[in-house]
Design a protein that fits this description.
alpha/beta, Leucine-rich repeat, LRR (right-handed beta-alpha superhelix), 24-stranded mixed sheet, 9 helices, 15% helix
């Protein structure tokens, strides 16, 4: 969607380009700068109004620090009329993008530059205000003030991306308004019901309106909303979910992309002879078949953006000569192949070319290789394009004449013919391209060694899912603005380079699914804004370098399916505090799970399965905030622009099945500790016990603790995790009954619990009543043994008493002195025997008691 930005026009002649949204056209010109050279005197009542307005705002970065003193016309963001001194412009738009990224969950250092708080009605004192720009701030769901509709002199009102909710009907009073930007998407609150618009009749009062943007404003409850726009005589650009638009005969730009439109397109759209931009992307329920005759009247068309679907297609023959000259073309999921569409060769002004999932199996044609002077964006991903990328040659810097000709070979790529022309330096292969995406094709051979010397303006290089061989060219370090490097799923080999400190702008590195060997280079965390690292499915070995602790902004670390050894470093929990995804599965990692890992409070995916871990599961794993609350926004950076720069991609074993996640990755909550040597009981903290402070793992969807040595019973508190849809506790030493309430009633597959000999209850066939019966039988047998032992003891003691009594009585009859001596001896022995018997009986009782328990 990047190309949309240059087509947003304020339609103003008296406001600087800086005062309109950053998405506005550059022809916004304001003749007055807020300096003292014009010696404009501030109106006292307006100065007080501005200060009152300032007091109602929150200003974390102190953007309004200049609002001091008596001369308000020299204050930052304030514009006054040169003659009268009245305030006519107020520009509070945050163009640093700091606020925007932060609202979307991106990690930005420093204080937020967002204005927040409340919008004071003191603005009503600015009676001559023509231009008001509050875009790009964060008013956190504050209702759009109704009093803004009383600023009747307004010509430009920009509330885009400001997190204001709703559109008051009082806006219909702004009859002088020319530019109205209400782009809503920037905050979770924009999705709540009170942000939905139910009536657009007020639009008919905007008689001067030329531009309106209602992107991402929910219009699903509005009936006949297009009829209101049909009454606007000056409207040129409408950005918004239509049927009869034939009355908009002067319409120049029509953008209905990123919606849920269904049914056939109105034929009247193709009668707009002044149309310059048509965008219908991502409306997968549209119906119809567009042929070349539909575009016959579009002589001025420069932007064409379409997405095909099951019932919507584009049928353009190779012999077609379009009546227009495009600068932007985006055709997604449209069957253009198998031949590369030759009609594109007639489009000499192309800057953006996006032909994804187009069933093209031809090699890249020579004319596209040489379309180098203005091409900025090339995305040919998800086709079957084969061949090799051209080898880039350093030419001698001489005065010889060179001719550069391209002859394409299906199997061998480009052959360069150098004769009869003046040329020196490097082969000019797309030198101005910033985004090159050739992913999911059939390209082979090596990556051109000089690619970084030629394509120095690259921001995105995506060559993933091809068949490239060789190593990563060192010349990539010459691409100073490179943000994303994705070379995953190729056949690249050798060691991962050490030159990452030369690529300071890098944010994303994905080298997974190759044949790299050696260790993880210690310099890989050199780029300061680095947030995504995937090195999985290689042959990497050795321990994790301590330098990974420098990845302070890292959100995802995936080193799974390698031969990494050693222990999980304790400093993970001290240095990688932003980490949300940690995947170390299928390695040779041993030792215990360090408790410091629990300090990663934002962690939502933890996969330590198929390693050699031992010890207990830390009970503090239940402190992960990412598994406790629902996320309302995507964790990865700005969906609109950055979805072209970076689409998250990760393979996870979730719900027992290996799946690849992209745009839904932020909604996955997973802990997988299976196939290790862990033992002990399942910590209560992992089960989601509900404390009074509502801190629990209620968003946990997948828990896999299989193939360990975990003992104890399944805590009943686990039944409170109502979102848990996959559970695997198999092959442990768990015992007792399996819970049956809440989610546990849905776990009907015995494989989730098998391999636990003492576990019973459904879905296992072991009945929990059988162990009790066996226990009773064992108890009866123990009691019988106990009685027999006691009987034998008492019989023996009795016989001994009889014998001793007989001996004593006989000795008294023979000799009195013998009798007395024998009596005293037997008395002493008897006392000892009694004490022994009492102790022996107590010992027997303890033994039988322990045995019964």
């Amino acid at each position: 969607m990047l190309e949309n930005y240059s087509y947003r026009t304020c339609f103003l002649s008296s406001i600087p380009s800086s005062t309109c949204s950053s998405r506005s056209h550059k022809n916004c010109i304001f003749p007055l700068t807020n300096t003292t050279e014009f010696k404009v005197r501030c109106v006292e009542s307006e100065r007080k109004a501005l200060l009152s307005f300032k007091r109602s705002l929150t200003d974390p970065s102190d953007r309004l620090a200049s609002w001091v003193g008596k001369e308000c016309c020299i204050w930052k963001a304030v514009y006054c009329d040169i003659q009268t001194g009245y305030v006519i412009g107020l520009d509070l738009n945050d163009r640093s993008n700091n606020c925007y990224w932060k609202k979307l969950g991106h990690l930005i250092p420093g204080n937020s530059t967002c204005f927040g708080g409340k919008i004071s009605p003191a603005l009503l004192e600015l009676r001559y205000l023509k231009y008001l720009d509050l875009g790009g701030n964060d008013f956190q769901g504050l209702a759009t003030p109704n009093f803004l509709g009383s600023l009747k002199n307004l010509q430009c009102l920009n509330l885009s991306l400001s997190s204001l909710v709703g559109i008051p009907p009082s806006f219909g009073n702004l009859s002088n308004l020319r530019h109205l930007d209400l782009w809503a998407y920037s905050y979770p609150i924009d999705t709540v019901e009170r942000s939905w618009v139910k009536d657009l009749n007020w639009v008919s009062g905007l008689s001067s309106l030329k531009y309106i943007d209602l992107s991402y404003v929910n219009l699903s409850l509005v009936k006949h909303w297009l009829e209101a726009f049909n009454k606007l005589p000056s409207l040129v650009t409408l950005r918004a979910v239509p049927a009869s638009i034939e009355q908009l005969s002067r319409l120049a730009k029509l953008d209905m992309g990123e919606n849920q439109l269904s049914g056939p397109l109105p034929e009247s759209i193709f009668n707009f002879s002044e149309l310059t931009a048509l965008r219908l992307t991502t409306n997968y329920a549209l119906e119809g078949n567009l042929a070349q005759n539909h575009f016959a009247r579009f002589h001025g068309l420069t932007v064409l953006s379409l997405s095909c679907g099951r019932s919507f297609s584009v049928n353009l023959t190779n012999e077609w000569v379009p009546p227009f000259s495009l600068t932007h073309i985006k055709l997604r999921s449209c069957s253009l192949g198998p031949k590369f569409p030759t009609w594109l060769e007639t489009q000499k002004q192309l800057q953006f070319v996006i032909l994804t999932n187009g069933s093209i199996s031809d090699p890249i044609p020579p004319w596209l290789w040489t379309l180098c002077s203005q091409l900025q964006w090339l995305d040919l991903s998800d086709n079957q394009i084969g061949g090799s990328l051209p080898r880039l040659v350093n030419f001698p810097s001489t005065s010889q004449n060179w001719t550069v000709g391209f002859y394409f070979s299906y199997y061998y790529g480009v052959v360069v013919d150098l004769s009869s022309n003046r040329f020196h330096g490097l082969l000019p292969l797309w030198p101005n391209v910033t985004h090159l995406n050739l992913a999911k094709n059939l390209f082979s051979g090596s990556i051109p060694l000089n690619i970084g010397h030629v394509m120095t303006k690259l921001q995105v290089l995506d060559l993933s899912r091809n068949a490239f061989i060789g190593s990563i060219p060192y010349s990539i370090t010459r691409v100073n603005k490179l943000l994303r490097l994705d070379l995953s799923d190729n056949h690249l080999s050798g060691k991962i380079p050490h030159w990452w400190y030369e690529s300071q702008q890098l944010q994303v590195i994905d080298l997974s699914g190759n044949n790299f060997t050696g260790g993880i280079p210690p310099t890989i965390c050199s780029p300061p804004s680095f947030f995504w690292l995937r090195l999985s499915r290689n042959n990497l070995f050795g321990e994790l370098p301590k330098s990974l602790s420098n990845c302070k902004s890292l959100l995802a670390l995936d080193i799974g399916e390698n031969k990494i050894s050693g222990t999980i470093p304790e400093w993970f929990g001290e240095s990688l505090l932003s980490l949300q995804i940690l995947r170390m599965t299928h390695n040779m990692i041993d030792g215990c799970i360090p408790p410091q890992l629990c300090q990663l409070s934002s962690l939502q995916i933890l996969d330590l399965s198929h390693d050699h871990l031992t010890g207990f599961i830390p009970s503090c794993l239940g402190s992960f905030r990412g598994l406790k609350s629902m996320k309302f926004y995507r964790w990865f950076p700005n969906y609109f622009y950055f979805s072209y720069v970076f689409t998250p991609n990760m393979e996870l074993v979730e719900k027992g099945t290996k799946r690849t996640y992209t745009f839904t990755l932020d909604q996955v909550n997973l802990i997988d500790l299976s196939c290790n040597n862990l033992h002990g009981e399942i910590p209560n903290e992992i089960t989601g016990r509900i404390p009074e402070d509502i801190e629990r793992m209620q968003q946990l969807e997948t828990l896999d603790l299989s193939s360990n040595n975990i003992s104890g019973s399944i805590p009943l508190s686990m039944t409170s995790i109502t979102l848990l849809c996959y559970l695997n506790l198999s092959y442990n030493n768990l015992g007792g009954p399996i819970p049956t309430t809440n989610q546990f009633g849905t776990f009907t597959n015995p494989s989730s619990f098998e391999g636990n000999p003492e576990l019973c209850g459904k879905p296992l066939i072991t009945d929990c009543s059988l162990p009790r019966k066996k226990e009773m039988e064992t108890k009866i047998e123990d009691d019988e043994d106990e009685d027999e032992i006691r009987l034998c003891f008492f019989v023996s003691a009795g016989m001994g008493f009889v014998v001793m009594f007989s001996v004593t009585f006989s000795s008294l009859m023979i000799n009195n002195s013998w009798g007395y001596c024998c009596f005293h001896f037997m008395e002493e022995v008897g006392e000892r025997i009694i004490r022994f018997c009492l102790g022996f009986m107590a010992c027997l009782n303890r033994i039988f008691s322990v045995k019964r328990n």
